[in-house]
Prior knowledge:
alpha/beta, Rossmann fold, globular
Amino acid sequence: MNNIVIVEQLIPHYREQFFQDLQNSVSDMNDIYVLHSSHNKSAFIVNNIHSFNNIYVHNYKFCWFNFQNIICPLLRLRPQIIITDHNPYNLTNYLLILLRKIFRFKLMFWGHGGSNKFSLEDNLKIKNYFHRLFIKSSDKYLAYTEGVAKRILPFTSNGRIVNVKNTINVEAMILVRKSLQSVDVIKQQLGLSYPYYITYIGRLYKEKRADIVLEVYQQLKSRYDIGVIIIGDGEEAERLKAISDNRVLFTGNIGDWNISGKYLYCSNIVFIPGDIGLAINHSFAFGTPVLTQEHVLGKSPNHGPEYSYLIDKYNGRICQNGSLESMTECAIDLIENTVGYKKNVEQYIDSNLHLEDMVDAFRLAVS
């Protein structure tokens, strides 16, 4: 049996099923161990309580940097393959690059391929040298999306790139969505009384720009009998509540996607003006189109790679960056054509972004 080690700083709940399925898929030839520094029981899983092998390692912090003490587990496990997050602030990654020749393990990075704030070719950005080091040091690079794969191609060979199609357990969410009663019935259960709803889901901090949702809502409410649902919590919560009227519902953080999914299911639009990532997968799984601003190099928002799953005028809208008029026009389009967009979203998610495909991509990469 070969040992495969995956180094993660934290293990969020949405990765739990992935690691379980991955371990099961390779169990005939490999044992997988996830080394992590998760410690917050309310937000992350912790050691020895779940059905995949995970080992807690201490995380030392130095200003912007951190180092995970993985030495003892590596000496004990002697892995043939190590997979680690593409994070230039994690000093553990530089140690792994040095050790790979000594201990003769294959090293694979996985992630975004660098920052999307600037071009990876820009030699004036010091951070790019570290991003490119990770890419060139990878025996295989596990790219989150096809967009990431294309982005890193100039710095490695095509045969060393695997598109893992980063996702969450959308299969389980789709089953829940298909089991739900009509939108009107679920609205009644949730106490939602307006014909149309815009929903924001995510942390409430400045970069997410949830305030723009309220600005667009102000443009729409003279035209539609519409409400807003804000799912999440954070530093901006009180300020947003202070500038909202009684048609804006603040649910707070909802950790159970079975519950948050019902709000998405009842919405015409999931609108995230700022940085967006796996919320796209979550929204699509519950049949709701997504609205966000276009990504412009050097400007906010700085979307995650999952932004590439959003196809303008098919499963959502991508509006002009910084234009309230464009955002309002796109929102109107989604409201007026809700049935068509929801049908497209369901067709897309029924055949894309499944966790099974991500597991298969990892399994092939390590085989």
